[in-house]
Amino acid sequence: MSPTTIAAHLSLVVLMTSFSVRGSPIDIDWFSPLRVNKQIYAPVMRDLAMVLLEPDDVQIVHPTNLEVNMTVRYPKAWGCVNITFDSTPRWITTRPDVITLCSSDVDGGQVHRSLPLYFNTTSIGKATVEVRLEYNGTRCSNSWLRLAVQLSPALTTTSDILGWIYTISWDVSFLPQIIHNWRRRSVVGLSFDFLAFNFLGYVTYSLFNAGLLWIPEIQAEYFDRHPAGVIHVRLNDVFFAFYGFVCTCVQIAQCFALKREVGQRTSTACWVITGLATVAVVASCIAVPLAPGFLWLDVLYICSYTKVIITAIKYTPQLFLNYKNKSTAGWSIWGVTLDFTGGLFSLIQMFLLAANYDNWTSILTDPAKLGLGLLAIFYNILFFVQHFCLYREEPKCIEEKSPPKTKDIDPIMRF
Q1: Statement to judge: residues 142 and 207 lie in one domain
Q2: Which of 104, 127, 150 delimits the end of a domain?
Q3: Overall number of domains in the chain
Q4: Containing structural domain, residue 341
Q5: What is the pLDDT of residue 21?
Q6: Residue 84 has pLDDT above 90, yes or no
């Protein structure tokens, strides 16, 4: 299309809009060039038309029929418009399939109508329905209905209860180590690398959970990318992440205040790994306004991947330290037991939610929670083996095996 033709068509669009705004009975079909080039006048038509759904986010129990109120606005000069539907997946049907609305009054102005829509569900799961207002085959406005059809409210209640059980287990699991250190007046036998990894892990995990639960813009980005997805983050997940961060800070403070052995410090490898992970998160934040298609949701995913990677390696220094000392005296087995319980119930909750909505692939959309549960179970089994099988006969005190020179070293330099 030549520039002259485009300019002429745009002039017609401006003319059509000005007449419509004044309420003149102008029919868009009078502009025959615009019927051929719908991509030019479609934006103007979208400004003149509107379709809204109330409510637009619904949770129901299968099998149930749903009634939603629809509000439609369009110029009277258009005469008739069609309301069409498109669902993903296609186990939601509407009655009727297509709605045609006509206005006998073409003297100008706007048509405002409200009418009910009826939806039938034939399956469970998460689904979206697009409601489109079309005129002359052109989509002028659209609205979305997000529908969550669950198998049983009892499964939702059970998953919530399990969520708080595993949250309490994980929360309480921090306390035995803190109490263990305080009673011994020592952190000998506790890996400083483990604490450094834990600190970074709970910072990134807090960002991921809080962002996905409390920021509507990020939730919208999630559902745009996963229309039938399930957000597995709950309030208990956010509480646990914040609480874990605070308790880790308390344990780090104990490392400065309580006794430790000579040479007990954070390793260079740990500093390098945590530094690279921090740079990756910061770089992803900078990339959001610069890289098209890179969203804040992707930043949260990087935070979750960081948490999973940290969890995958954070227990290794403690396992090696136990092996080196041939003892688990500096490591609280009660904390390990509670950590194992939390990981187990976390996985059970995820599978219950997936079963309730028949959406098993949604488990993979929360890699942090899935990885956290699996890795907690795996490593804690290894700690059980060390404590109950390999090193049952422990020396009276690990400190006896180390030189008692601790006060001559600057605490800040030793961490």
Answers
A1: no
A2: 150
A3: 2
A4: 153-414
A5: 40
A6: no
The token duo for 34 is 């615009």
8 Å CB contact between 132 and 42? no
First to last CA, the chain: 70
Length in residues, the chain = 415
pLDDT in tens, 35-51: 334 444 444 455 578 88
d(CA 186, CA 254): 8
Query: Of 96, 115, 150, at which residue does a domain stop?
Result: 150
CATH number of the CATH domain containing 127: 2.60.40.10
- 71 has pLDDT over 70: yes
Q: Please tell me the predicted confidence (pLDDT) of residue 335.
A: 92
DSSP notation for 233-292: --HHHHHHHHHHHHHHHHHHHHHHHSB--TT-S--HHHHHHHHHHHHHHHHHHHHTTTST
The per-residue pLDDT for 191 is 94
* Strand-pair category, 138-150 with 92-95: unpaired
Angle at 125 between CA 122 and CA 128, to 5 degrees: 85
> In terms of Cα–Cα distance, which of 383, 402, 231 is closest to 314?
383
Burial class (CB in 10 A: 0-12, 13-18, 19+), 342: buried
Confidence of residue 149 (pLDDT cuts 50, 70, 90): confident
Residue appearing with tokens 């009826």: 118
The lowest-confidence range among 99-108, 177-186, 197-206 is 99-108
Indicate the range of 46-50, 247-251, 381-385 predicted with least confidence.
46-50
Residues 399, 405, 409, 411: what is their CA dihedral angle, to the nearest 10 degrees? Answer: 20
Peptide bond before residue 25 is cis, with ω within 30 degrees of 0:
no
Query: Is 85 in a helix, a strand, or coil?
Result: strand
Q: Poorest-confidence range of 192-196, 244-248, 358-362?
A: 358-362
Contact indicator for 222, 295 with CB cutoff of 8 Å:
no
Are 302 and 365 in contact by the 8 Å Cβ rule? The answer is: no
Q: Show the CA angle centred on residue 172, arms to residues 168 and 178, nearest 5°.
A: 165
CB distance 166 to 372 below 8 Å: no
Radius of gyration of the chain (CA): 30
DSSP string, 207-236: HHHHHHHH-HHHHHHHHHH-TT------HH
